[in-house]
Amino acid sequence: MTDALELDALWEDFNRVVNMTSQELAAWLRVRDAEETTEVPPEEAGTRTGRQVLAILQKRRTDLTEDDLRVMREVVDEVADRTDAADEPAAGDTALRHRLMTVGHDPLRP
Fold first, then answer.
1. Which parts of the sequence are annotated with region: Disordered (predicted)?
2. Is the pLDDT of residue 4 over 90?
3. Cβ(42)–Cβ(55) under 8 Å?
4. Per the structure, how many domains does the chain have?
5. Is the pLDDT higher at 30 or at 23?
6. Do the Cβ atoms of 17 and 79 come closer than 8 Å?
7. Per the domain annotation, does 109 fall within a domain?
8. Which domain holds residue 63?
9. CA–CA separation, 94 vs 85, rounded Å?
């Protein structure tokens, strides 16, 4: 298991980059998967990582598993790789914004 200081830093980083609420993320995942004629069940909506982020947002820090910690690290790294603090994606970069939103990060949010 991760030590307490490392867990604190990861929890802080994760909650900094995941700037959508669990309700916003759940709605986004459902919208992303909705098609004209069908809609997937809410528990199956979105990417696997998106669903894992949603599950993490609904947990207390003391209930995190090793798999949750792995996903949190991946999300923090992915958002850091795809964004630059000084140069967040512009409003016109819809594909990148939507990709980031599937893991709970809306780059247009202050």
1. 81-110
2. no
3. no
4. 1
5. 23
6. yes
7. no
8. 1-82+91-103
9. 18
Residue 110 counted as domain residue: no
Residue carrying structure tokens 């980031």: 100
Provide the terminal-to-terminal Cα distance of the chain, rounded to the nearest Å: 33
How far is CA 65 from each of CA 38, 42, 55, rounded to the nearest angstrom? 34, 23, 11
- Asked if the model's pLDDT at residue 79 lies above 90, the reply is yes
Rounded-to-integer distance, Cα 1 and Cα 89, Å: 35
Residue 34 has pLDDT above 90, yes or no: no
- Please give the share of the chain, as a percent, with pLDDT higher than 90: 57
pLDDT in tens, 54-67: 999 999 999 999 99
The single-letter code of the amino acid at 27 is A
Find the angle CA(49)-CA(50)-CA(51) to the nearest 5 degrees.
90
CB 51 within 8 A of CB 29: yes
| Domain presence at residue 53 | yes
User: What predicted TM-score, i.e. pTM, was given to this entire model?
Assistant: 0.82
